[in-house]
Records
---
Amino acid sequence: MVDLSAQKVLSAGEIEQKLASHQLYVKTEYHEGHRADCSSADLTRFDFAGLDLRGIKMDRALLRGANFIGADLRGANLVSASFENACLAKAEMEFALMAKAVLRGACLCEADMSGAQLDRAVLTRADHARPT
């Protein structure tokens, strides 16, 4: 089981600033801005829908109930992150590092997890069915 007892508390403004800098980092092909590091942060129910989060660091982050619909998480570091009841529908997660991630009850409908590293990940009750 993942120990998430030592979470960093970030204000909404701090989170927005990190994400804006990360968007610039990705958009300028790593020449400007900074790669976001939200490791060990409590981001419960945060809305990441549609964001380009390629390569973001969110290891050990608490992401319960977060919205990642259509987000780009390719190559992201999500080791030991908790995605319980999060929505990752249509998310791009190719080659994401997700060892020991907890995806219990997460919606993974139409998510692309090609090449994602899921060693010892918990996928109990995760919904990966294609909507009808």
---
Amino acid sequence: MTFTEDKTFTLRFSLEVRFPDDYDGEEDGYAWLKAWDEEMKPEVLKAVRSVLRRHSGWSIHVRNRGMSQEDEIEFAMSKDFSGGSSSVPEQEGEHR
């Protein structure tokens, strides 16, 4: 049986916009959200993926755990020490 450890890290973006008092709601058709979805979010995801891929030994894939990709995108990362090609890292100060 293979021993597995895991850790979840959440990086959350909360978007908030303010409108003048005379704004009647949804007048702009959520143009501010469209800008996030079509411009900023793809750039952020591309940058995150680029940084993660620079670290050798890790495999990275995007997966969906039932949430809409409008609300959540998960980068699943894994590293395999079971094949013997990579040694298990030592803790600081520990020598084997």
